[in-house]
């Protein structure tokens, strides 16, 4: 639509200028979001379909902006990465998520895991690994219950890979987020100290309609098997998608079909209900 006429071009340029202005403004707000208490963590359960049980949760960030209302993490995380605030925000999420899981472990007898999204930018901070081990100590959460999700990225530097290896040595699990959507995923698996693959929701979406998506899913599941990696599918919204995945060997599932992301209280209730015999 933006190429229809000359005037729409100038409109487009105005839009762009406005966007960069509001971006600047939003960046300033984002820097203050933590101290203003505008950030919240929600949790989405991960289900083992064979057991019919919740086995873990993923922590997902929410920003309740004072005037703009709810802003999606896909909008503000890239901005936080650009302006560097992601280091501070990422640490806040990690501490909050670990503390929450430790609380749940105290309240319930279930070895649930906590998955936290990690921006590759956080790995540039040379104190990152120390921070993680400090947070584990502080919160009392055992490392084996913590998992870091990181989006595959070919451009990862040796220092960043080393940091991931150190995290593995601490006893954390590492999963490749959005697997299959970015670069050459297979060579990536050779270089990376990963333990789990997250099958991207874009493939799951086509389960009923697209032969190629079904083929991708089968291929990715067999890659996980060959590399002896765990696998979980995300974005599962229908029973058909879930049964296709289970039938093809992927029984760990995350998605609206089972649970939407929920606040801590709701998550606790959902887990308790799920654990009842
Ligand atoms: P992601 O890590 O791939 O997270 C999955 C996204 O899919 C989440 O969006 C989740 O709410 C959504 N989702 C889950 N189940 C379904 C489903 O059945 N159908 C559909 N359509 N969507 C589903 P969300 O919460 O908006 O997060 C978007 C992205 O923002 C995340 O994608 C992640 O890359 C990033 N993000 C979120 N929290 C954090 C964080 O604490 N740190 C970092 N670095 N990134 C984060
Ligand atoms: Ca994720
Ligand atoms: Ca993902
Ligand atoms: Ca994603």
UniProtKB/TrEMBL annotation:
<protein>
    <recommendedName>
        <fullName>Diguanylate cyclase</fullName>
    </recommendedName>
</protein>
<feature type="domain" description="EAL">
    <location>
        <begin position="23"/>
        <end position="275"/>
    </location>
</feature>
